[in-house]
Amino acid sequence: MTHRLPDEFVARLRDVLGDELPDFVAAASQPHVRGLRRNARKVSADQLDAVLGVPLEPVPWCETGFRLPGGTPLRLGDHPAHRAGLFYLQEPSAMSPAEILARGLAERGPGAAVIDLAAAPGGKTTRLTELVGPDGVVVANEVERSRLGALHQNLDRWGAANVVTCSRPIADLARLAPASFDGVLLDAPCTGEGMFRRDPEAIRHWSVAAVHGSARRQARLLAEAGKLVAPGGVLVYSTCTFAVEENEERIAAFVADHPGWTIEDCTQGFARGRRVGDAPTDRTARLWPHRLAGEGHFVALLRRDATPEPAAEAAGRERRRRARQPKPEPAAASWRAFAKATVPELVDLPIVVRGDRVFARPATPSGLPDDVLTRPGLPLGRARPGRFEPAQALAGYLDADRVVEARDWTPDDPRWHAYVSGAEIPDTGPDGWVLVCAYGWGVGWARRRGNQLKNFLPQALRSQPDRAPKARRAATLDER
Fold it and tell me: Where is S-adenosyl-L-methionine annotated to bind (predicted)?
């Protein structure tokens, strides 16, 4: 469906694109590009291709990214492989900021600490968990608490153990953990011009006044984000808009106002940004929908100089990092009993205990006190009277070979359909917890009692025919 672009928007782009403007306008009338990323820990490219039965075209700037061909069914979000976290639906251009951050961290080595400041729904966070490796840590911050649910669901499916979450204004984080992160990713709120062909609502809400309002907000956020970067670390600023005021002008103003920062070239494979004044903003990257198979995006890579911070500031940060660590509680014993019976290799896993809930502690500290975090690690479950109830996130982390008992049902097995609809299932065997899998990876839990599997798949994840259209749309829209 073609949506008319605002005349004033087109006129503004004429100054940026020149003779390319007709090509851009023509591209704006084409269907938007869809894509996905495979979970490198869970599946190879060949395996995913075989599972989906859809030809996948590699995305040049993301080794785990693929474009979906036109006409691909829109119900991939309902696919058992999606439930098992084998892939994440994500528009190809939105894959670029995480990859560019990884370039900036290339010399850092294992154990990097990074923070995604606008993390929901999780597209960039899930990729960052792979890029920093198991010895690194990703802090996924989402200011809007109403969006934490979607973020947590996607993290549960992805199954990464090196991520923590929080919901704090960036200014609060800068106060709590100054100069604490090797890498900071700010995918800033913007006017969404790059999403016009995908989201008609963005067209209806666009105006020059909105551009200027976004630019003012972005300036404040960028200044606060810079405070989180450790000496020698990097800051990636990205938007899904074309406005120079929200992109190159923001970067030029930041480096002018903050001595000790440089703009690094991140244009490999992408168009160069527009130069603003004396600032080398042509080192920034622009992703144009008429030049590549993706939507509109802008990315800048900034590096803080390596001048050591004052010793007092570094010492204070380390005290905050170690402050208020929860002491072991009875829930820890409940977890160990469950782990010994169900997943023995995790018995000695370092944990964080909050009341009756238990989390796996990432190998690298987050740089924030645990009590600031919504999730201080991978949720393992909670202690209940007489038993330990495993978390949905633990199911997404595990595969069938790591648990004492699992059921790996194929998509055409009636028991699979019964499970995802929330039914109890006859199943012979001793009482205990069973990991239900698809393609070998955990989808959820069931508890066998009296040769019957009681279903512990969360209500929100069950197939409900009367709500299917809405659920399908929520699950299958390409996410940022």
Answer: 118-124, 142, 187
